[in-house]
Design a protein that fits this description.
- This protein has 291 residues and is α/β, with parallel strands linked by helices.
- The protein is built from ten helices and twelve strands.
- The strands form four sheets. It has a five-stranded mixed sheet with strand order 4-3-5-12-6. Strands 10-7-11 form a three-stranded antiparallel sheet.
- Helix 1 crosses helix 3, helix 1 crosses helix 4 and helix 2 crosses helix 3.
- The protein is globular and about 65 Å long.
- The N and C termini lie far apart (66 Å).
């Protein structure tokens, strides 16, 4: 039997966690074609089909789920050893996972999360999928739902509001056009909203949520955005009231066993303070910035 490298299993884990080739490609730095080929190679080597493939992504088969559960425990051990090795060289790593706009807010305020005086490296993963911490895939996550895993610790960090935004002082005709993320990539409720409510009026479709902001600024149409993004942009204005059905709480989540590690606690506390300091803005309560 041909020996299978740990790298091959890591690719499998990445696809399973991201639900398809696009997210796995972004996370791994490999092209979607390469990721897909590596998964096929693994299936041939183990002699089992691991994924059901469809237009909406990759879903684990029963064999794939069994392998996924076994590999998560192995991956946790590997990551723990890597952390131990890095600490010995003074290069401890804190792995933070957040969605597109949570990451955007962190990047806008990065000095509040990590400074040059800190002795750790901050690794940020961007995904609309739920942060996975049960087996230490990440150290800290921002989630839109209450974590139900028994070994996770959570802190409520306020509520997130959404509204439709368009280019400021745009012509009236712009109200007829909408911008949306492709249905395949529309994982979150706010990304699905245009498809469920304005499908016939969608003029531009993109694969990443970050492009919604750029296209709305450019006058390509209306886009659903978190209020803390749209209200801060001087080139945008709300195209109506808050979309209240999309409002949700957000949580900072850590693994219970790791939450007292100094660097993890440091980043978690700073992140909590950042979100709390922006609580009104994130909840859609502040007026937009004027030009």
């Amino acid at each position: 039997m041909k020996s299978i490298s740990w790298d091959a299993y890591q690719i499998f884990l990445t696809v399973a966690r991201h639900g398809g080739l696009t997210g796995a490609s972004q996370a791994s730095g490999l092209s979607p074609a390469t990721v897909g080929r590596r998964v096929l190679d693994l299936e041939q080597n183990v002699g089992r089909q691991l994924f059901q493939r469809s237009q909406t992504g990759y879903r684990l088969t029963a064999d794939g789920q069994a392998l996924f559960e076994q590999l998560q425990a192995m991956d946790a051990v590997v990551r723990k050893v890597d952390g131990w090795r890095q600490e010995a060289h003074g290069t401890s790593v804190v792995r933070l996972m957040a969605g597109t706009w949570g990451t955007w807010l962190i990047c806008e305020n990065i000095q509040a999360i990590r400074s040059d005086r800190d002795g750790f490296r901050l690794d940020m993963s961007v995904s609309e999928r739920r942060a996975t911490l049960a087996h230490r895939e990440h150290d800290i996550g921002i989630r839109a739902v209450v974590p139900d895993e028994p070994n996770l610790t959570r802190r409520h960090a306020g509520e997130v509001a959404y509204a439709a935004y368009r280019q400021r002082n745009a012509p009236d005709g712009l109200a007829a056009s909408w911008i949306a993320v492709s249905e395949e990539d529309a994982i979150s409720s706010y990304l699905r909203w245009p498809h469920e409510n304005t499908g016939a009026s969608i003029a531009v479709v993109v694969s990443r949520p970050r492009s919604l902001l750029d296209l709305a600024r450019a006058g390509a149409g209306q886009a659903v955005l978190p209020c803390f993004v749209g209200d801060l942009d001087p080139g945008l204005e709300r195209a109506g009231d808050e979309l209240k059905p999309l409002r949700h709480a957000q949580w900072i989540v850590t693994n219970s066993e790791d939450r007292h590690r100094r660097e993890i606690r440091t980043v978690s506390d700073r992140l909590f303070r950042l979100l709390k300091s922006h609580a009104d803005l994130i909840a859609g309560k502040r007026p937009s910035r004027t030009v």
